[in-house]
Amino acid sequence: MKLVTGREFDRGLLGYRCWLELANGGRIELPVGRWADGCDAGDAVLLDACEGPTLDVGCGPGRLTAALTRRGVVTLGVDSSPVAVRLTRRRGASALQRNVFARLPGEGRWNHVLLADGNIGIGGDPDALLRRVRELLKPDGDVLVELEEPGHGVRRDHVRLRPDPADGRWFTWAWVGVDAIAEIAVRTGFRVVWTTSRGHRWFAKLARA
């Protein structure tokens, strides 16, 4: 599995306009404004579902990690980018520079794991990621996932960030439509508790099967 190193998204984390270039020449604009801003109505779907210790995987600049911390929820942001960790800590929240597949604090004891902003695509293998997330959760914990709109199914592609970062390297990413999450959940030991939308954003809550 080819994982991002942490540098690929730094330009977007800092608020600069950027996009993912696909292997076929297409491109997907990244919502860098949302990453850097305060939380919106879509984020509230995720925040309101977190009532205990929460791990924010791929926390980026930390808007969700910080918002939960302000609510009094014990929260740790995890990101492979040192820029993301620095920005999250600057917001007054806790963050750790670590790959989600590496050893993490509190394994098996988290109430919730957040996969917001398309982070279900980390590594280009949603099944492998959810199996790893299952190891992080307590037995009655859940994962809160942001998804693509219905009709997208599951898509994997080689992408690179544009404008070029330092090396412009290609890495693998995935996208999962809300209509495809139930099948993935079954394969990875979860069940879908609910799906919902807010504006143009789609979400699901998965619990252990």
TrEMBL record:
This is Methyltransferase domain-containing protein. One of its GO terms (biological process) is methylation. Keywords: Methyltransferase, Transferase. The keyword ATP-binding does not apply. InterPro entries: Methyltransf_25 (IPR041698), SAM-dependent_MTases_sf (IPR029063). Signal peptide: none annotated. Residues 55-141 form the Methyltransferase domain. One of its GO terms (molecular function) is methyltransferase activity.
